[in-house]
Q: What sequence folds into this?
């Protein structure tokens, strides 16, 4: 009997990315590992899934207590393929990342890494996403690795409440501690870059600038900018519960 | 002075789809209309955005109080391009759909239509998504059109609370009335279809079956299956607020 926990790992930066390699190194002593990750980078793919065209599963490594596969799909495709075709069951835990780039505030909704975590959560698997607030593919992960290990060990030992997953973001540089808070309110002003082509038409490149409108120091964006690890408990539910009664009164007899 | 409200319209089925053409017909008398929709179908694209490759804007129609454009991008790309490059400002209202296919329960998170609505909501624009629980591209919209008109008129007259958008799903067939409730709890079992190729490798097609685990008759999936229009007030916030204190106690001094 293998009593080790079955740990599923994925990301959105692709299976070769530095972040997932470090995450695998940390988690490997903690259980039986199955990795299904995108073959190439799938950042900003959010919760998109591949419908109407097929996916191929490529085996990278099969060893004792360690299997690694890739697909030419999105992070959520990886979770679905992993649970349904590789494992044939739900794993005991899902970890995603370590993403290079912040998944705080509204950026959570664009993130493929956090979409994979949400998908695990929806399938009732305790799921955690890790991200570093640095877009450099070769960013230094030294300061955040001890926190990844501690948080992962705690989750594997104590689990998470059903329907709740964790979004963990690491600040740049030395870490002051951990702050738990909510997803910060904020938005992007996009400011596309425009290129005029020789044939007269224009093409546009999405860029933009993020604006945080949240003053709470515990809100994730503020916490990481203040040097703290930001942890947000998250759920797969868009319902604006506070507005349910008001909406009911307004629209049910319209 | 043009005192008509500025109404932005998009979808994920593409600009030629029956649903958006009907939505445009209904909304056109209510204000100045700007449509930016995907050139081709972008279902299941969720909140994904096009980063690192350019977008082209194609003009379809420019008339008095009516402009229509397409891009080879996702629904959220359409919203960003519409607000920032076409309008140069936020519109007064955003409407998306009418989507062919249910966007109830967890399906909301995969939906490009509802992602566009969420993006509008994040930008503080009163936003509403309409979907019909029928995947047939030529589905009959007759029964739901009067409800689309009534709801749109009410939102244009009375607005929506800042940070709250509406997810409206229509049942098949005759409509009993409107129910306002929460996003139903449920999940998919995926059951990929497998094809063995001549060279020995397998390809997988995502299919699957949805399971609703929510017993509340007001939950959106249950409401539409009982013949009601389901309205859910939604917000762009994944925070599991009920678990914030517990998570704080557990992880801040780990």
A:
């Amino acid at each position: 009997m293998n009593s080790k926990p079955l740990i599923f790992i994925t990301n959105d930066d692709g299976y070769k990315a530095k972040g997932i390699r470090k995450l695998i190194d940390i988690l490997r002593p903690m259980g039986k590992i199955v990795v299904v990750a995108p073959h190439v980078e799938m950042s900003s793919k959010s919760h998109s899934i591949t419908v109407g065209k097929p996916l191929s599963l490529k085996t990278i490594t099969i060893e004792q207590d360690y299997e690694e596969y890739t697909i030419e799909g999105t992070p959520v495709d990886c979770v679905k393929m992993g649970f349904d075709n590789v494992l044939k069951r739900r794993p005991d835990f899902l970890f995603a990342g370590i993403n290079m780039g912040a998944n705080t505030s509204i950026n959570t909704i664009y993130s493929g890494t956090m979409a994979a975590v949400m998908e695990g959560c929806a399938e009732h698997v305790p799921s955690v996403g890790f991200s570093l607030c640095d877009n450099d593919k070769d960013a230094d992960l030294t300061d955040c690795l001890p926190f990844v290990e501690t948080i992962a060990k705690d989750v594997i030992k104590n689990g998470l409440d059903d329907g709740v997953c964790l979004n963990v973001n690491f600040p740049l540089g030395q870490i002051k501690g951990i702050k738990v808070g909510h997803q910060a309110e904020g938005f992007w002003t996009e400011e596309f870059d425009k290129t005029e082509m020789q044939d007269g038409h224009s093409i546009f490149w999405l860029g933009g600038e993020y604006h945080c409108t949240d003053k709470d120091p515990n809100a994730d964006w503020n916490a990481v900018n203040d040097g703290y690890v930001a942890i947000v408990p998250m759920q797969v539910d868009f319902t604006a519960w506070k507005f349910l009664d008001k909406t009911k009164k307004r629209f049910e007899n319209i």
About this structure: The CA atoms of residues 37 and 70 of chain A lie 5 Å apart. Chain A touches chain B through 83 residues (CB under 8 Å). DSSP finds seven helices and 13 strands in chain A. The radius of gyration of chain A is 19 Å.
